[in-house]
Amino acid sequence: MATVIYFSRIGENLIHGEKQFLLKGNTAQVGEKIAQKLQVPAYEIKPIVDFPLSYDEAVIQAKMERDKQSFPEYQAFPTELRIDKHLFLGFPNWCGSFPRVIASVLTRELGTGTVIHPFCTHEGSGMGNSMKELQRLCPASIVKEGLPIRGSRIEKSELAITHWLTHYYWNQ
């Protein structure tokens, strides 16, 4: 059984180098597409302290959390959420890696032997250092090849998602 969890942020985001206000975050959109293709529910990671809607202020908070290597608190997942063997883990690439709330979830929720299928949204930096950091943070898990998708190309991501799922999940 597979589980899809993701962290995403609404508010100002960079799209083609310009700030645009998003009512639904890019990573949420990708996470929902993956969950639909897998026919499983998607669960959003919600920090206790929300990120600011302002892009510049969100970057300041993300850098502060990264520099302090913090483990931000997050709202409890619904009781029906179980991370079984395959975890599809989504996040935006911030400051070269995943937001620190992802580290919080992984250190508290992940079991031994979980296969992590990471996906991220970005605006030019791909997966950044997130693959190395996931492997370091989750040594008892198997981290599969990640799927980076430009936030500005979410509407055209169906083929990339299907190809990634076919290559790294369905054909195991």
Automatic annotation (TrEMBL):
Pfam families for the chain? Flavodoxin_4
Query: Membrane-spanning regions, if any?
Result: none
User: What is the name of the protein in this document?
Assistant: Flavodoxin-like domain-containing protein
Q: Give the Flavodoxin-like domain ranges.
A: 22-165
- Going by the entry's taxonomy, the superkingdom of the source organism is recorded as Bacteria
Example of a GO MF term:
oxidoreductase activity, acting on NAD(P)H
What is the organism field in this record?
Answer: Enterococcus phoeniculicola ATCC BAA-412
Query: Which InterPro entries does the UniProt record give?
Result: Flavodoxin/NO_synth (IPR008254), Flavoprotein-like_sf (IPR029039)
Entries under Gene3D superfamilies matching the protein: 3.40.50.360
